[in-house]
Specification:
It is built from 34 helices and 27 strands. It has a 7-stranded mixed beta sheet, sandwiched between helices. The protein has a 7-stranded parallel beta sheet with strand order 10-11-9-12-13-8-14. Strands 22-23-21-24-25-15-27 form a 7-stranded mixed beta sheet, sandwiched between helices. Helix 16 links the parallel strand 22 (487-489) and strand 23.
């Protein structure tokens, strides 16, 4: 066949699969089926390759080109348009053709001429006839309706500014017909709430027929469903679920009535394949573990039940990790607008969404707006962590432990063993090193890191492996002198991890959890205040996700329930770096180890069952390279036997070369797919797979009980101290630049505060101005706490607004220590009442009760006026009238006096 004929064969297949009845011109019968595609139909500008009829009327044209024309496909759009505008023989006068396709059998592009500024777009296949019929009967197209969505207004002030900006930016992107849009929003800022609002408006104003909300774990899908059901629009009195049908998919069927579908990307993949999915494959996100791929073909095929036009919009949650490699096929299949949600985009994310960032709200901005809390870094460095150690042979026996069973035995060392810090807890376990880190952490936790606290703050410890996690848990319980409930393990392999996570989030115990990957990303535990890193992370994006576990703000009542000794709500979190994670070089993605949650056995089986993506092959190569260094000479020889002459290094190099562009370019006679297939060929031999798995398990961890670790350094990160000094310098400059412009600064700077009290409105003005300088009360309080520790009597402010006064008084020399403003008011009240009672005035018990209420009001509002005495709590005790009866005609002078005395 000629290239043109081959293209026609593929186009015929796609049309037939999409529900069209194919006819030649000599057998033309438009009544034979609801949708008829006629080849070589004559027009006054020549025969069109295919003319599409629906209910006997011509509605669309298809211009067929050979596959080689795919690179010039848009060039042929004018030819298609010419056919669409031509006179079609036997057609009713004035009848027009609305739909146009250009197709090669590989590529299909589509244009709807009813769209304003009609623009072609690539499709997985042709629309079904019933879809085009529905579009013809619709009053307008969805793209036209998106141009008329009213500007989003937050009349009831239900939304943060960042959410309003995101919704407006997104709707501008829709109006411009941009197919992909990215919302970057800091953890805890309300991405899901924003997305649901966008969904509501798309359903209401754009008349979207169906929207897909994609997640990558079942747990996140359940959380999203709860939020959709409970969502109350700001212009409605009914809940979202009363207005629209929301369905979370838990089978291979999508209800026809569903307007919002919530699904894991794994399940949607299986739906398109027409296969059932075990729910266990939805528990872990596929970016971390692709065991769910085993036994599944990689291709997404056309599904007549759920065609490409099934969804109008797809929202991808945590899009930085869930849309690449095999899973991108789900998105490529559907002809839908795509919206990405993430707090931590990387270069791939920006590239995929064509750098169309409709809203950007960073962690730093979220901290300034009190949406997130900032963090400090505390460093713990030990001798063995940094430099490793040496085990001398001398014929001594050392303890060895099997990784999986943890069975122990003793063996004589044949030669000295030198190990680096990076080998800890993988090849060598030094319990003294673990104990030294945990003991130092315990000693510093409630003295330096969280001074004044009586209970251990909720803490996550990041471990290297499950085995490492078990060693840490035992050490934590020993060093803290606590029981099992105090410290728990939350990993994929732990018993009932979801129950343990719920208890960690909501109950007093556990205070400390140890994890590897399970709660490193995507899971929020708002009360967490401390992250202890006992594993390094080379990926910048992954590290930012791990940090995000501590950024969430929390409800003060809930926080104090879990932390009874806390004097205020959560205002920061602390990274305790015991491995140099904050200093190590970070890359955009994890180097060779891109799938840490996938076992070696699963990786090999995934390859056997069809996985050929770069991450899988690269990770497998990395595991083999590591194993190669562990094998003894006899094991190397055995490997050569089983692999028919290939070394483990040969196989690893082949896997890496399969995606090495430089290497591929040198192989002129071969194709990339051939390299890949040759690289994975050894793994089809079950004997080789069995040997690799067995020999890996046989290697033990050496237990170093000889070298005792010591602390080299424990203290706040130097970069944090630099940041603290920078914040204080900025604050000084802020005061200097605004002392004549902002009323409160002018009063304090000039000394007029002695005769003129500050008001809440004045401090609000200062607060708003500080935000423009990227200054917040929490950051400044932390800065002074670390730089001037000896004059700061609490590590956190009580009021984020009122305590601006405390900061200003310290910096301007009015106060000599930094304390919550309420402490100053309480101290001054005590001095004032003692002075009064020592003179001619002796307040009665009832008068003192009223004065204490006045004092508390000033502590939260800075000053009091006679009108305030008619407000709570005074109105419950008789208000201004009662105050007058107690203090007589001089009550106003008394209020003026107390205002000035308590602010002194």
């Amino acid at each position: 066949m000629t290239p043109e004929q081959k293209a026609r064969v593929e186009i015929d297949k796609k049309l037939t699969t999409s529900g069209w009845a194919l006819q030649d011109m000599n057998e033309f019968n438009p009544a034979k089926a609801p949708g008829v595609a006629v080849r070589e139909f004559r027009t006054d500008t020549g025969p069109v390759d295919y003319l599409l009829f629906i209910d006997r009327k011509p509605v669309g044209v298809v211009e067929a080109k050979k596959a080689e024309e795919g690179q010039n496909i848009t060039y042929h759009e004018t030819q298609t348009e010419r056919y669409a505008e031509s006179n079609i023989r036997w057609a009713v006068s004035g009848q027009t053709v609305r739909f146009a396709y250009e197709a090669t059998g590989i590529i299909t592009r589509f244009t709807d001429y009813a769209d304003e500024k009609a623009r072609s777009r690539e499709m997985f296949s042709f629309h079904r006839p019933e879809t085009l019929r529905g579009m013809l009967t619709d009053e307008s197209t969805i793209r036209n309706r998106m141009k008329t969505i009213p500007i989003f207004e937050d009349d009831k002030k239900q939304f943060r500014d960042c959410q309003v900006n995101a919704i407006r930016g997104l709707e501008i992107s829709f109006a411009e017909n941009r197919p992909r849009a990215l919302i970057q929003m800091a953890t805890g800022a309300g991405k899901t709430y924003t997305a649901i609002t966008a969904v509501y408006r798309l359903l209401k104003y754009a008349k979207a027929k169906r929207i897909l909300f994609l997640v990558d774990t079942r747990n996140l899908g359940s959380q999203a469903e709860t939020e959709f059901i409970g969502y109350m629009p700001n212009d409605e009195t009914r809940r979202f679920s009363e207005l629209y049908d929301v369905r979370r998919l838990n089978s291979g069927n999508i209800p026809s009535s569903a307007q919002v579908c919530i699904s894991t990307i794994q399940r949607m993949y299986s739906v398109l394949r027409g296969e059932e999915l075990d729910e266990r494959n939805e528990e872990e996100n596929p970016y971390e573990h692709e065991g769910a791929l085993r036994g599944k073909p990689r291709e997404v095929a056309y599904n007549a039940k759920y065609p490409p036009e099934f969804f109008d919009v797809i929202i991808i949650d945590e899009c930085h990790r869930s849309i690449y490699n095999i899973w991108q096929q789900v998105l490529d299949y559907f002809d839908a607008f795509q919206i990405g949600l993430t707090a931590t985009p990387d270069k791939r994310t920006f590239g995929y969404f064509a750098e169309n960032v409709v809203s950007e709200y960073t962690h730093e901005q979220a901290v300034l707006d009190n949406v997130n809390v900032g963090f400090d870094t505390y460093l713990i460095e030990t001798e063995i962590t940094k430099n490793g150690a040496e085990l001398k042979a001398f014929g001594q026996a050392v303890e060895k432990r099997e990784r999986l069973t943890r069975a122990k035995r003793w063996e004589i060392l044949d030669e000295d063993l030198n190990y680096a810090g990076t080998q800890l807890d993988r090849d060598v376990v030094n319990k003294s090193q673990i104990r030294t880190v945990i003991r130092t952490f315990k000693d510093k936790l409630l003295t330096e890191i969280f001074p004044g606290r009586l209970e251990v703050p909720k803490t996550i410890i990041f471990a290297k492996t499950d085995s490492h996690a078990d060693d840490i848990i035992q050490t934590v319980r020993d060093e803290f002198g606590e029981g099992n409930a105090f410290c728990r393990k939350i990993t994929y392999n732990a018993d009932k991890p979801e129950t343990a996570l719920s208890e960690f989030r909501n109950d007093y115990n556990p205070r400390i959890t140890v994890t590897v990957d399970m709660i490193a990303t995507g899971t929020d535990v708002k009360p967490v205040e401390c992250l202890l890193f006992m594993r390094d992370v080379r990926s910048r994006n992954y590290f930012e996700q791990m940090k995000g576990r501590g950024t969430r703000t929390t409800n003060e009542e809930d926080f104090k329930y879990l932390n009874p000794s806390a004097v205020s709500n959560k205002s920061r979190f602390v990274i305790v770096d015991a491995v140099g994670v904050t200093k190590s070089l970070k890359t955009e993605s994890r180097p060779l180890e891109r799938k840490p949650g996938v076992s070696l056995k699963d990786l090999m089986m995934s390859v056997v069952m069809g996985a050929r993506d770069e991450d899988t092959l690269t990770t497998l190569a990395g595991r083999l390279t590591r194993l190669d260094k562990e094998l003894t000479p006899s094991e190397q020889r055995k490997f050569l036997e089983v692999s028919h002459g290939l070394t483990i290094s040969d196989i690893a190099k082949s896997l890496l070369n399969a995606y090495d562009d430089d290497y591929i370019e040198q192989q002129v006679m071969a194709a990339n797919v051939e390299f890949i297939e040759k690289a994975v060929e050894p793994f089809f031999d079950p004997k080789l797979r069995e040997y690799i798995e067995t020999v890996r398990k046989n290697h033990d961890q050496i237990i170093d009980s000889t070298n005792i670790d010591t602390v080299k350094d424990a203290g706040w990160d130097g970069s944090y101290r630099d940041k603290a000094e920078s914040d204080i310098a900025t604050f000084k400059q802020f005061i200097e630049d605004n002392k004549d412009e902002i009323t409160a600064l002018s009063i304090l700077y000039s000394g007029a505060w002695r005769t003129r009290p500050l008001t809440l409105q004045m401090i609000q003005e200062v607060h708003d101005a500080m935000k423009q300088w990227n200054l917040s009360v929490e950051r400044l309080w932390d800065a002074y706490s670390h730089k001037l520790n000896y004059i700061v009597n609490t590590k956190s402010p009580v009021s984020k607004l009122i305590d601006i006064v405390a900061l200003l008084r310290l910096e301007l020399g009015i106060s000599t220590e930094l304390a919550p403003y309420s402490d100053t008011v309480n101290y001054n009240f005590m001095r004032w009442t003692m002075a009064k009672n020592a003179g001619n005035v002796h307040f009665t018990d009832e008068q003192m009760n009223w004065l204490r209420m006045v004092k508390d009001f000033i502590a939260s509002s800075l000053a009091i006026t006679p009108d305030d005495l008619n407000l709570a709590p005074f109105n419950r005790h008789g208000g201004l009238g009662k105050f007058y009866s107690l203090f007589g005609d001089g009550y106003e002078a008394l209020l003026d006096e107390i205002n000035l005395a308590l602010a002194a």
